[in-house]
Amino acid sequence: MAATHLGLATGDKTLRFEAYKHQRDAIIMLQQLIQDPYQADEDPTLATVMMMQVSARLFGDEEEAHAANHLTGAKAMIARRRARMGSQKSPNEQFLASLFAYHDILSSVSRGSSPLDIHDVDFDAIEGSPSMKGIAMVLQVVARVSQFQQKAKAERLLSNQSDLQGDNFLLGAQLQQSLNDLVFDIPMNDSEARNISLTAEAYRQAAFIYLYRVWFDMGAPNPTTVKHVKECIACIEQVPVDSPLASSHTWPLFTAGCETSDATQRQFVQDRFLAMYNSRQFPSLKRVLRDVEDVWAAKDAEQVMGGMKLDCIQVILQRRGREVDLA
């Protein structure tokens, strides 16, 4: 993974070849570990699977859209560990479990389906860091929205109506209240804590946008969505692009960016993704920007036709035949 990144950053093709060899060796070693009953579920094995997941997301080519999703394997490992050891976790296990939860939840948004696993009390902080609890709290709600999406789809399919009724409508209201209850104070004197709080708030605003898309089947230019788009972008704008936290802004920036029709906001989204790419050299960032631009083109065409129903994720699934790399 490091060799791939360095090869991309420097343009050195020999490093790209070395990266391929390292990846091949890692796959061979992983296959051996998985076949060993004593090593199959140990930390190094799970860490290798998660590194492959991260590498595929950050550095995978467009043509790799149908590559194996390593999250399925990671979920099986975590389930076996949970059955064997219960909820007790070492710091290493907490880190790996939180990394899996982060990718699983955001992948559920991109898939338009429920997360592979249930993430509640076991997922209380990003990468096991107490300072990241706020972001994890938002993502717990996002996971519930993804689960809610399945129920909403089923009801709309049966009723042939957009408006949800009864328990499903109440569930949407409960999720909205859960997001309203999350309040993040933005400190002024501690830059790191400020960036964390701004990131958590950007996630919260993006979660509102996601919820309203699922609950009410609506997006911009609805005034409620426009408000959350504006606030989400305002939070991201205040975090320096070279902050480590900016690497986690892909989902909120994609979510708010796809919904906006404002020229100034769209320009910021483009500039921000390009600045993130220039700072990090992750090909996924350019790919997500292309996805946002695809959504804009589809939404602009839809507005000309007098509609406002397009779902951003569905646009990419239909046009590209793959998920959006949100994690």
From TrEMBL:
Bilayer-crossing regions: none
GO biological process, one term: positive regulation of transcription by RNA polymerase II
Chief localization: nucleus
Keywords: Nucleus
Entry GO MF terms: DNA-binding transcription factor activity; transcription cis-regulatory region binding
Subcellular localization, as worded in the UniProt entry: Nucleus
GO cellular component: nucleus
InterPro entries linked: Fun_TF (IPR021858)
Pfam families documented for this protein: Fungal_trans_2 (PF11951)
Keyword Transport tagged: no
Record bears the keyword Phosphoprotein: no
Record protein name field: Uncharacterized protein
